[in-house]
Amino acid sequence: MTRRRQMQPMSRSVDVVRLRHTLGVPELRRLLDALQRRIELGRPLAGGLTLDHASSPERAAIDTLLGRNPSRGASLHVDLDELARTLAEAGICETLDAAVHALRGPLVDQRALAAERELIWRAVWNTATAGFAAHPTLLPWLGKLARTGVVRRLCNDDADTGAALLRNVSRVAAALPVAAEPLAAFAARLFGNAHALDPGTPGATLAVRAAARIGGVEFQDDAEGRRAAWAAVGIMCDELSTPALVFNLPASEETPPGRLLRAAREAVEPVHLSLRLLLHWPLARDAVLAGQDVFVCENPTIVTLAADRLGARCAPLICANGQFATPLLVLLRQLRAAGARLHYHGDFDPAGIAIARRVIKESNARPWRFGAAEYVAAPKGEKFTGQPPSTPWDEPLCDAMRRDGRAVHEEALFADLAPDLARSAPPPA
């Protein structure tokens, strides 16, 4: 912990009673304030000092103390060397420093204190950098934390607390990734406290961001973003919520999800895959998925229509269920790792574009009939609110949507999507 560096006056020979009746009067409060600031900034009490907008009582008190003729003007100049001599010759105090310390108590050299604090924090960051050596991908992030002062704010600028915080985050990083471990169990194993990584604590705030970088996902600071970050390194949060909806997805491995997918294909029925299933038995090494074209839609109605109208002829189809939930992210990343080719379509409205951006970025999916030409030709719905975000895969799409301002819901386009789902060849780019 940083020690407060107190500066002592050069002499303790001070007539406090007389000092209070001369320099300590209310009319000279601003002068004392200025002298105190100089001491706290490590500056000598010498040379000149100017008080702007001096009042008549201030001016009279200074002129009287220095024994000079009444002065005039908006600002008041004080010769500090002359003030020090006046007090010393009167036998009140030997130095001006001693006078200020006597009236204002022990003062802290803020500049020296800040320099000392910076040295301590530099040592903290040097130690932290060594602690994160097992994950070099985190070092740029660690440097950014040091530059922006995030850690110092989280621990109220206490270096000891900051060092402990970074050590704990380093322990989390060194233990990742894991294989399908609940967050509470992971926290209890590392820290003996199942709630040590609950959202809202400084340790969890940094640890979940480290997890996102180790897992290679873009961090979003909300509940779903935190679940996705932990899931990317094998940590489960709410592992049974918001499962991924799939239809006709093939699988060959003898695992619970593989058997579940095969049974669903034989019954020609959509099925849900939970985050728990996907983390315990990932599909990333399933050979049957290599080279497979897998289509991804935004709305479950598309899955219903595909099951009813195409049945067993339908290509593998996954649904985002109107949101970019963690099980979907994990499934898409596993399919990409297995060698599947992903194709995405969604709603033409601001929310739909936002989901599409994340799916395409996180899974490297190709847009599937999801460009400006399709939007312009589609039957339009109601006016949407807000502005759609940019569409990097097709910049004219964003321009067209902003000009028209009307939504196109995916359900209205099933007839255009069905031919792609019904054939084995990939759709046109």
Q: Would you kindly provide a brief summary of this structure?
A:
The chain has 429 residues and is of the alpha/beta class. It contains 20 helices and twelve strands.
Mean pLDDT across residues: 89
Strand order, largest beta sheet: 8-7-10-9-11-12
Tell me, what is the CATH class of the largest domain? Answer: Alpha Beta
Helix percentage range: 40-55%
Low-confidence stretches: 1-11
Report on this structure:
The chain has helices spanning 16-22, 29-40, 56-66, 80-89, 96-104, 110-131, 139-148, 150-154, 159-175, 183-191, 202-215, 223-231, 256-267, 275-280, 300-309, 326-338, 350-363, 372-377, 395-404, 414-422, and strands spanning 6-7, 48-51, 76-79, 107-108, 181-182, 235-236, 244-247, 271-273, 293-297, 317-319, 341-344, 366-367. With 429 residues, the protein is of the alpha/beta class. It has three domains: 6-108, no CATH class; 112-236, no CATH class; 244-422, Dna Topoisomerase Vi A Subunit, Chain: A, domain 2, CATH 3.40.1360. It has a six-stranded mixed beta sheet, with helices on both faces. The protein has a two-stranded antiparallel sheet with strand order 1-4. Strands 2-3 form a two-stranded antiparallel ribbon. 34% of the residues are buried.
